[in-house]
Amino acid sequence: MHEFTAEVEALAQEVLAYSLDRLKNDPPLDGPRSAEDLFAQVGNTITARGLGGHEALELFTSVLAKACISTDHPRNLAFIPSAPSEYANLFDLVVGASALYGGSWQEGAGAVFAENQALRWLCDLAGLPESAGGVFVQGGTVGNLSALVVARDQARKKFPDASRWVIACSQEAHSSIAAAANVMDVDVMKVDVSPDGKLMGDALAQAIDELHSTTSKRVFAVVATSGTTNLGIIDDLKAIAVTAHDRDVWFHVDGAYGLAALCAPSVRSKFDGIESADSFIVDPHKWLFAPYDACALIYRDPELARLVHTQHAAYLEPLKDGAWSPSDYAIQLTRRTRGLPFWFSLAAHGTNAYTQAMEHSLRVAQQAAQLVKNHPNLELLCEPELSIVAFTRKGWTMSDYQQWSEQLLDDQVGFIPPSSHQGVPILRFAIVNPWTKISDIELILARL
Ligand SMILES: *Cc1c(COP(=O)(O)O)cnc(C)c1O
User: Fold this and answer.
1) Range of the domain at 373
2) 133 with 299: CB under 8 angstroms?
3) Is residue 84 part of a domain?
4) Residue 102 to residues 143, 307, 337, 345, Cα–Cα distance (Å)
5) Residue-wise over 375-391: b if at least 16 C-beta within 10 A, else e?
6) Which of 183, 225, 254, 283 to mutate to test the pocket of ligand 1 (most atoms within 8 A of CB)?
7) Is 422 left (phi over 0), alpha (psi -120 to 50) or beta?
8) Given Cys at both, which of 30, 165, 318, 354 links 186, Cβ 3.0 to 4.6 Å?
9) pLDDT at 319 over 90
10) Co-location of 356 and 313 in the same domain
11) Does 102 map to a domain?
């Protein structure tokens, strides 16, 4: 039996009270502190006798948690922040208390069934066939890597004479593609983008054909980005799909941020071509209101992934019962049922609520772009394609941007670190939080 003593019961109340408070109120942004500083306040927390639950929780809530920036603050518009729904966060508590094993159907059938329904919703939005499926993995980086490993396996079977494997993607592809290539020991061919930043079918075709006709190297996967991280730009998926498939090349779409907007009718047509993907990823922890960490990795034909990723050992034989085991579809074995908070929120709220929340962010981004255009000191870099608004401040150097950003955080107004585009420093708002209002944007713009 569990030993649920009065002390544990009291701690449970404290944990729930803290969690509810965190969910009910806008948290402060907070900010980082040095390790020396933190040590001076909490000392060594790992002791032979233990601090006790109350004391350890107190150290966390009063010191350590406050040295972490709140990623769900409505004026945290940095990188791609997060905005889990209250339901998703609450269900994460349930997952934490439930000792669920998400690696196999045998041990986690009910949880895996629910995760698969949430994945099904994404497959349907993308227009993939009934046979499509996948798994929730830790993040987009692992998702991209897992898909690319399957793509290479296919290419090895079709083109045994290739001297070296190559991934083709745009200059603007996410850093995780280079990281995956490094792990796989393959090359990356970065193809020039159009003036508005998109990878186009003809430029891609030319680059691939030149490589194939002048070397014995072979492109085994094309990675299109749908929603670049910096500017939210969507590659020409339709033409890229044709270019890839005409050459018997795997077509993967990295939609870690942007593919969430598949559920927004106002921008759905920008993703035309996604229905031809051999695989794609989208991170519910970015713009689908789920807590860290969850990436949905989806294959048109999951069987191809199962053949590559399934681990084999005597002690795993009981799992080879023909049932759907999520472990078999990515680089992983033991896994948390990390898709469940997303599933619960989607099941409880319904998909219409997702569409509404998404359209809200898109509208705020459009309004923010208009405010930037009207601002005497600012220049909009490009019309937002999704919900990222990028601009420059006239006359500023990188160090001006950095100082401004640090002051903004010090004053607990917002978190907007500078980025750059083609060597020019920029600011960008990544708007994924339904609680971010146009008044939040105004507050920030007033300081520029
Ligand atoms: C964030 C992002 C990734 C990486 O996802 P993680 O979950 O951070 O590993 C990959 N691609 C794009 C386009 C992204 O925006």
Assistant:
1) 351-445
2) yes
3) no
4) 16, 19, 5, 18
5) beebebbbebbbbbbbb
6) 283
7) left
8) 165
9) no
10) no
11) yes
Q: Alpha-carbon distance 65 to 58, whole Å?
A: 10
Residue 73 lies in a domain: no
Which H or E run includes 393? strand 388-393
- List pLDDT tens digits, range 340-354: 999 999 999 999 999
Q: What are phi and psi of 151, to 5 degrees?
A: -60, -45
Is residue 432's pLDDT more than 60? yes
pLDDT of the residue at 1:
55
* In a domain? residue 86: no
Return d(Cα 396, Cα 223) in angstroms, integer.
Answer: 35
* Residue among 169, 257, 432 to mutate when testing ligand 1 (max atoms within 8 A of CB): 257
pLDDT tens track for 167-194: 999 999 999 999 999 999 999 999 999 9
- Ligand 1 centroid to 300 CA: how many Å? 20
The pTM for the full model equals 0.98
Q: Does any ligand 1 atom lie closer than 6 A to the CB of residue 173? A: no
Phi and psi angles of residue 289, each rounded to the nearest 5 degrees, phi first = 60, 35
Number of domains the chain is built from? 3
What's the pLDDT score for residue 25?
87
Widest Cα–Cα separation across the chain? 74
Atom of ligand 1 at shortest distance to CA of 255? 13
Sequence length of the chain is: 448
* Tens-digit pLDDT profile for residues 378-423: 999 999 999 999 999 999 999 999 999 999 999 999 999 999 999 9
Question: How far, in Å, CA of 310 to CA of 317, rounded?
Answer: 11
309 with 149: CB under 8 angstroms? yes
Distances (CA, A) of 391 to 24, 25, 115, 268, 324: 33, 31, 39, 25, 47
